[in-house]
Amino acid sequence: xxxxxxxxxxxxxxxxxxxxxxxxxxxxxxxxxxxxxxxxxxxxxxxxxxxxxxxxxxxxxxxxxxxxxxxxxxxxxxxxxxxxxxxxxxxxxxxxxxxxxxxxxxxxxxxxxxxxxxxxxxxxxxxxxxxxxxxxxxxxxxxxxxxxxxxxxxxxxxxxxxxxxxxxxxxxxxxxxxxxxxxxxxxxxxxxxxxxxxxxxxxxxxxxxxxxxxxxxxxxxxxxxxxxxxxxxxxxxxxxxxxxxxxxxxxx
Amino acid sequence: xxxxxxxxxxxxxxxxxxxxxxxxxxxxxxxxxxxxxxxxxxxxxxxxxxxxxxxxxxxxxxxxxxxxxxxxxxxxxxxxxxxxxxxxxxxxxxxxxxxxxxxxxxxxxxxxxxxxxxxxxxxxxxxxxxxxxxxxxxxxxxxxxxxxxxxxxxxxxxxxxxxxxxxxxxxxxxxxxxxxxxxxxxxxxxxxxxxxxxxxxxxxxxxxxxxxxxxxxxxxxxxxxxxxxxxxxxxxxxxxxxxxxxxxxxxx
DNA sequence: GGCTAGGGGTTGTTGAACAATCCGACAAGA
DNA sequence: TCTTGTCGGATTGTTCAACAACCCCTAGCC
Lengths: 252, 252
Prior knowledge:
- Two copies of one chain form a homodimer.
- Chain A is mainly alpha-helical.
- Chain A has two domains: 11-91 and 237-249, Orthogonal Bundle (Arc Repressor Mutant, subunit A); 94-234, GntR ligand-binding domain-like (Four Helix Bundle (Hemerythrin (Met), subunit A), Up-down Bundle), CATH 1.20.120.
- Chain A contains eleven helices and three strands.
- The A-B interface holds A 2-4, 6-7, 23-26, 64, 67-68, 71-72, 75, 77, 80-83, 88, 90-91, 93, 99-100, 102-103, 105-107, 109-110, 160-165, 168, 172 and B 2-4, 6, 23-26, 64, 67-68, 71-72, 74-75, 77, 80-84, 88, 90-91, 93, 95, 99-100, 102-103, 105-107, 109-110, 160-165, 168, 172.
- The structure holds a DNA duplex.
């Protein structure tokens, strides 16, 4: 997430890929990660207010550090900041989901278009994600299927070989996770899309660029529709997660 | 930039659109704007180190507020933050420019694809930007031509009608401005691309979707090549701007 | 020459304080 | 009853000062 490397891969190019892991993180970044996990896992319901004082005490960090963490989360669109009112866990509207899928289509299309010229590692990533999804399906672990599904699409966009596209995409998918709180993670929801992921992958390997594109467009269109209708059905005011968050108060 | 409105336009729907204007801005945001302008106009050369102490004194804001502003600039990728080392004005490598154009192609392609279904205001924006560029050309104001050119492409991507695509795109173009410091703003540079903007617009109006796409691809490919070669020619260590920045020290 | 230890300077983090702002509640008036 | 004005509590915005942690550079050592 830091991003500003100007690369000079020395003789240890293989190690260079691991750079990001030892990138030392300040307290603020770690706080942001904790909050991000809580949000994307639905433990902090959308609309929840994140009080500086309460959270600062709960996490044992100063207000200033917490505010720094908030800025990172605002950057990822997981929370919104309103002047003199504080920060709130983002509420995704159906219109947001619509918008997200528009951008998603653009990014993934860029990926499949570049597929014939893509680096072998990138294609491998696609296969790996698909395999993970299938394995999770075998175990009946549907939340893992969901994760693998996101990773699959992340790597499809990754075929473009562009750092910025990767970035955009992961940001987008994190945001999309916010909507998953509204749609129950069920068998029937993921199963058909897993099949279509396999179809997509197959088309990708066979190099039928145009076919992949039309299938991808249909795929995303259907997925969008499923999520939007699920959101509309669940309706506002009914975030299904059991709300154990005592640290924070609701939005008005 | 705040973004989290969930609309309930009452009887004053017309006014609701103006909401964003009274969105008050904190000191940090204004500081960030000042710095952004200085950077994009080349008054702060890439690689310049932005010392918290020096800048805080120069702008008469506290270190904490300044750090808040830095976060916003990091978000826009205009500066990079290195832990325990500080923030530096971003140095764009040719690889970065390459990457930027990959994403740019994806976004603008999304725009032209949606052109047939685009809202009339969006199409109007394209025409306006083009007209502005032509007017600036008539005046011989080549920096204005450059600005209008960016706005033109921004509105092309805008045809997709997606808030997030607009966002991505403006972010991208701000970043691209960083590279413009390395390429002299000259007649010969902009003039051919202005012509091709006109061609693009013409194709857009006539609805020849496929033709627009291939022309756009060629266009961006050429533009990328021009900028990259210009950067390579200027080479590292020769940022052409006269460096009046006494507030800050160079990077090592 | 190459390596280690130390020092100067910068950033990271904290805590406290005050000002600005928002929100809800209460009261006064039509 | 409904609207409007005003007040007070609570939260955020901003600043300041201090210390710890860290990086880079240099001096000295082998």
